[in-house]
């Protein structure tokens, strides 16, 4: 099975867009990486879950360092009830479809919403971002570990 993640891109990215693994567009991480059978049933159930959530804003908080060696600069997102509930609902739905998470300790109670700072752009403390959709990204399109592909963008209510 393939590996995926769920994110909210800061700027609109069209479905089908491919990009280098080291050139991610700026995004809020909604879920960590997961393995699941990707099919219409999964997308339909995730769409149904997202339609139960109204769009909401998040606020950038302070910077932190993530990763095994604490060398990945991120901007934390204030952990509002809305983003935590959205994350938990998506994780629960993915689990119903048999998803396995790379780092399950960073799901549900371990989730820390964040945006990885990119080379040329970032969100600064206090900036707001509307969470109005979630994109599912293929982490290895065409069996190429150096590429990523946006598969589906699903709207919140």
Order of helices and strands: EEEHEEHEEEEE
Low-confidence stretches: none
Structural class: alpha+beta
Say how many strands there are. 10
Helix content: 10-25%
Amino-to-carboxy terminus distance: 30 Å
Rounded to an integer, what's the Rg over CA atoms?
15 Å
Any idea of the CATH topology? Cyclic Phosphodiesterase, Chain: A
Total discrete domains:
1
CATH class: Alpha Beta
What does this entry look like structurally?
The protein has 157 residues and is of the alpha+beta class. The chain has a single domain (3-155), classed as Cyclic Phosphodiesterase, Chain: A. Helix content is 17%, strand content 38%. The protein has two helices and ten strands. The chain has helices spanning 40-50, 81-96, and strands at 3-9, 18-20, 27-35, 56-66, 72-77, 100-101, 114-116, 128-131, 133-138, 147-155. It has a six-stranded antiparallel β-sheet with strand order 2-10-9-1-3-6. β9 (133-138) and β10 form a beta hairpin. α1 (40-50) runs antiparallel to α2 (81-96). The protein starts with a strand and ends with a strand. The mean pLDDT is 96.
Describe the structure using short key phrases:
alpha+beta; globular; single chain; 4-stranded antiparallel β-sheet; Cyclic Phosphodiesterase, Chain: A
Overview in brief:
The protein is 17% helix and 38% strand.
Secondary-structure blueprint:
Blueprint: E1 3-9, E2 18-20, E3 27-35, H1 40-50, E4 56-66, E5 72-77, H2 81-96, E6 100-101, E7 114-116, E8 128-131, E9 133-138, E10 147-155
Antiparallel strand pairs: 1-3, 1-9, 2-10, 3-6, 4-5, 4-8, 5-7, 9-10
